[in-house]
Specification:
It is built from 14 helices and 12 strands. The chain is α/β, with parallel strands linked by helices. β7, α5 and β8 form a beta-alpha-beta unit. It is globular and about 65 Å long.
Length: about 325
């Protein structure tokens, strides 16, 4: 009798264990196959500025947070209406284009930044040793007058106590600025990598690190104000993926240089040098700052637009979710 009871208990135990194991096998695939949230992210250019975005995609950091991103190359001018219509979920950047949209009354908000400094340096002909010696000389900037390059130079000169009007600042297309420097048409130029390194190789020394003097966001994330309130968990997952990618970039030069060579098509030497400059621009915690947003507004107003506007920080940015993510990741933020 005792033996039969013992056998019965063993059979019962085996049945219970088998049932639990069977349930586990049934549930596990369901969990594994849970669909990821598809998101569409607009990016204006494949450049080092978007390295955190590209790293988050290539290193599966979006994937790890239940996101399936589609990155679409699109200018900010097209991104603005595309986001309003719901065709695009996020803009991978914080720059003049979407800030101009905010100043015009559209509900765009910067929620995270990759860099909080620009990576421009002023290079000159070797005969010039100081910025003061360039007074009355021609300095080239890329893009247009009033764009980021120009405004960053103006802010740097003002911080040095030098009036920008003492220089003849000219805007040239990016593919012409180095040739204009070589021909002598320009006496100096404000350049960023990799054109900066090409100029230095040709014998044009850098006499001013503009980036060290100018706080201005580069890269980042802009969303519609309604999405901050309507889907904060998703926005936080996007921020967390990009912040984690940025931190991974900071910690691994080898991995980052490989990514730049493969995705940005840079040669090994340029990629390694660009990486070192890029590191100096990175925002530690990714939280947008008042000073950075103010300088973006200044760059827009320098073009004669929205000159009567005095926007509040909350009109341009919302730093709450970035602060939450930063705290969760162990950063010290206010």
């Amino acid at each position: 009798m005792h033996r039969r009871s013992f056998l019965f208990q063993r059979v019962r135990l085996f049945a219970i264990v088998s049932m639990i194991f069977g349930i586990a096998l049934t549930v596990a695939p369901a969990i594994a196959q849970e669909p990821r949230t598809k998101i569409r992210i607009s990016n204006s250019a494949m450049s080092v500025t978007s390295l955190a975005l590209l790293a988050a995609r290539e290193w599966k950091l979006f994937h790890d947070r239940g996101l399936e991103p589609e990155i679409i190359l699109m200018s900010p001018a097209i991104t603005v209406p595309a986001m309003i219509s719901g065709e695009i979920d996020y803009f991978a950047g914080v720059g003049p284009g979407v800030v101009s949209a905010s100043l015009s009354g559209l509900p765009f908000r910067a929620v995270w930044v990759s860099s909080d400094k620009v990576s421009y340096s002023l290079v000159t002909h070797p005969k010039f040793k100081t910025v003061q010696e360039l007074r009355g000389k021609k300095i080239g900037v890329t893009g247009s007058l009033g764009a980021t390059n120009h405004v960053a130079l103006v802010i740097a000169l003002e911080k040095l106590g030098i009036a920008p009007k003492e220089f003849n600042i000219l805007a040239l297309p990016p593919n012409e600025i180095l040739r204009s420097l070589e021909s002598g048409f320009l006496d100096a130029a404000s350049l960023n990598p990799p054109t900066l390194f090409m100029a230095q190789k040709k014998g044009f020394p850098s006499i001013l690190d503009i980036g060290s003097l100018v706080e201005m966001p580069g890269g980042g994330l802009t969303v519609l104000a309604k999405d901050i309130k309507g889907k904060p968990d998703e926005v936080k997952r996007v921020i967390r993926a990009m912040q984690s990618a940025k931190e991974a970039v900071r910690k691994s030069k080898e991995k980052s240089v490989e990514l730049m060579m493969r995705v940005l098509k840079m040669d090994p030497e340029s990629a390694a040098a660009t990486y070192e400059v890029f590191l100096k621009t990175l925002s530690p915690d990714g939280v947008p700052t008042r000073a950075g947003m103010d300088n973006l507004v200044k760059s827009i107003q320098a073009q004669g637009r929205f000159v009567d506007k005095k926007p509040a920080f909350s009109d341009l940015a919302d730093d709450r979710l970035a602060k939450e993510v930063a705290k969760e990741l162990g950063y010290k933020v206010q």
